[in-house]
Amino acid sequence: MTKNRSQRLTFGETEEIGTSDNPAKIYPLLADEGNKRLLINWIEGHTEYSVISSDVELSKADFDLCILDVEAFQAYADELERQKKECEPIQLPYLLLLSEKDRKLLESDRRNLIDNVVWRNVDEIIELPLGQAELYWRVESLLRIRAQSIELADREGRYRSIVQDVLNSVDIGLVLFDSEDRVAWGNDATESMFKFETEEILDLSADALFDEYIQPVVSGPKQFEDRYVTTFALDESVGVPDFQIKDKSDRWFTGRSDPITVGALAGGRIHQYWEVTRQKESKQQLSIVDRVLRHNLRNELTVIRGRAEEIQTAVSGDPSTQAQQIIEDCNSLLDTAEKSRNITNILSVDSTPVQISVGPIISDAVDKIGERYPNAEINTKLNSPGVVHALPELQDAIEELLVNAIVHAGEDTPKLSVTVEKNKNTTEITVEDNGPGLPAMDQTVLQSGEEVDDLYHGSGLGMWLVHLIVRRSRGTVTVTTPDESGTTITISLPRDPDTDARF
Asked: What predicted TM-score, i.e. pTM, was given to this entire model?
């Protein structure tokens, strides 16, 4: 029997029905034993047909055509109607053999029989007795109709399969609702997003889908639920507030709902959901860049202006000392501008983590910072550092941590160490210093990237830059500050064990 159309179907080449290679399966459902034997003998006399034994229950029988008499038809009317509906849109023909007695009943009560939906399930009626040629012609006609319906369903199915393959290849989650607000279809992205199988939600009402499958996994604002529920009462496009999914709490999603105005689902709606983590991240980081730049530029330019005024008027202070302070402030601004440029570059380019050999970038970073700050002592311990997946800017993050530790050390000879350890799935890069400890606000920025408040400027854009590089490398940052002194910052990045052996 053909699968129910609500199931996912796979379609191949349609085979011709009623050939010696693919005999048509005929099910003789006759109460009259004499007529049944004659029919079975006739079927067995044709190699293009095969008999389905009447020992097989009707509900379990797999056939292309059922030939039956009135008594059997009346006895099995409900099951016959069920099977016919289940096969739609493929035709499952029924051929009714009508005796003279049954014919008189049909003629005397034609109106009631024609109006009866059960009788309308019959595709052909043949009066008994009948010739073999007529029977053959009627059987072939019904089998042709079935074969054509299979071919048509096959073509539609292949087209539908192509469309579904295309829609399943996109990263946007799609759910289609019919005009009664019941689920008609969902794509693979939706399954992955909300953790359900499409077969589980087919024919569910929109309310049941939300209560049973969406609400339990969504971690988002109350407005999301309100907008989802009210959208089905509208005839317009509606956006939903951004939301998170509980097992993907570091990622953000959004969506919209649009009415369907044409086709089989006209009057229904299409819901679309997609990830917006990167967009939200970019917006947040650009806001941070703007705020820090405004804060630092305003403060440090104020100092520069004041020093310059002192030099100009020579009211007090040594011009050489004032000039040195101006240079240092300018250097600070230039450093902030460089970090701002790096952040903008990362945000504006769709960077993808690549394989990076950890050892060389650590060595390069230590050498570069060591030349810049010759009084600093930087020790390294690289235990088979191997290869990680990270943004190409990973070395910039390491250098930023080293510089930040040195300039805030409060000692003439800052002491730092850089250690690399490999775990099963990650590589950890740890930077330790003997300074006064990283301020709490900087720790928050470094580990979570969260905005603190409008007064924060901390270490400028440096900690934001480190967080952004590590976050987009699918890594994490942890900070510990012992009670006595110093800070330990650990970057954990996904490693590539298969590539490690070559480095």
From this structure: 0.46
